[in-house]
Design goal:
Radius of gyration: 19 Å
Distance between the termini: 46 Å
Order of helices and strands: EHEHEHEEHEHEEHHEHHH
Shape: globular
Number of strands: 9
Structural class: alpha/beta
Largest sheet: 9 strands, mixed
Number of helices: 10
Amino acid sequence: MIDMPATRPANIVVGIATSGRRDVLRDTLVQLDRQELCPQRILICPSANDDVDWDHAASLTIAAERIDGQKGSSAQRNAILDVAGDADLIVFFDDDYLPADRFIAEVERLFRQEPDVVAATGDVLADSVHGAGIGLQQALAVLARDRPPQTANIRTVENTYGCNMVFRMAAIRRAGARFDENLPLYGWQEDVDFCGQLAAEGRIVHAPTLRGVHRAVKRGRTSGVRFGYSQVANTVYLARKGTMRRARAWRLSVPPVVANLVFSLLPQSLIDRRGRLKGNLLALWDLARGRLDPRRILSLD
């Protein structure tokens, strides 16, 4: 399954889907510009033009290109895939993920040394997905203190983690893989679905040499009600589709519903538990009526 010619460097494209985080994305692009090995292209698909400081994006060592697409992480990533051209590898970063300086260099090394690997995700050195978010200086300090391992020691996993995902484009082309646009807006669990489409093409791995910090900034997130609906609807949808095991769908849905129920009695400032619980209950009611559809969040507030 060797598809990266040894006679030339790998053609690596970075893709970022972004929404409502102009200054956060700018920080990410500054860090991306520090890479020891530059990607050939940086493709940014915003939900609105003001989501990006385009003057700054044009000043990078590798000037970022604007890609137009429909709003929603899945649709925006598909728009990026559509123009990735003859890339060997595509790296998807969240707009609030800061990659270590050698991230792209280690990507090139990993996929050249492991020709059967079709997807990879790395070590997240700090992640505030359940917290208030990590400030820029704190995130940079984490990267500065990090001492990466000298060897990959990769292990097989079911899926990549959405904030940092690397894919072999030849495998995507063979499988005809697409991010599922029936999972709109935030697209919860779209990373699991996408990897499920690639599972027959080769190994999906966790590689500790790919390192970074997920700041998990709360701005730009979907509403509590919408996210709560997706916590139930998306996993049921993917289990029915066959890209998520039913047992895993159960594990991913039930604990959040229980947590939303418990913590809604003690409202938290960082997480809209009552909104999420309302979305959970709406989804369960739709499931009972045979009307469950992830796209219903488009009509919710």
